[in-house]
Amino acid sequence: MRKRRSMMMAVAVASALLLAGCTSGNDDLADQFAEGSGKNYIAGDGTITVYDASDRGEPIEFAGETVEGESFDSADAAGKVQVVNFWYAGCAPCRVEAPILQEVYDGIDADDVSFTGVNVRDQAANAASFEKDYGISFPSVLDVASGEAQLAFAGRVPPAAVPTTIVLDQDGKVAARVLGQLKDASILETIIDDLLAERA
User: Fold this and answer.
1) How confident is the model at residue 65 (pLDDT cuts 50, 70, 90)?
2) DSSP for residue 66
């Protein structure tokens, strides 16, 4: 009980740091980021880490309520490659990578691959506005209140680095991580294809 309480406290502190690291803004944020100004966000550097099957740790499961108010449980995607993207609306690199994520999502076979966002800051209205503006059609879990999804990934996702994209293998284990903005659709497509090939 004490260990779980300590972990929850760590997530709360990390979330507070994350919230302090970026302010919400207007659509100029994406332009500022693309220009390299680096204003008002904490993000990773785009480092890609791929884990060998023997180094993927334990399966990860998480649940929550989506932006649309529906229940989500990652267990429903058991047996699929799962792409999980951590984001929030005022994060400039999140805005830049959103069309790239949607491009990859449009090309997947839903029988084999699932996509889920984890929104770490926004209330439903702000997150829904982002999804509409950027044409995002895959679901996102609202995690600002509970932090449960962030806690589930705490061993592999530095809480202060947003965006981060995690890819789980068909056993629900962390197989790859993009720490920071996804630069190109082909990067994520290759990771997905490699994981699908493991079970071909």
Assistant:
1) very high
2) B
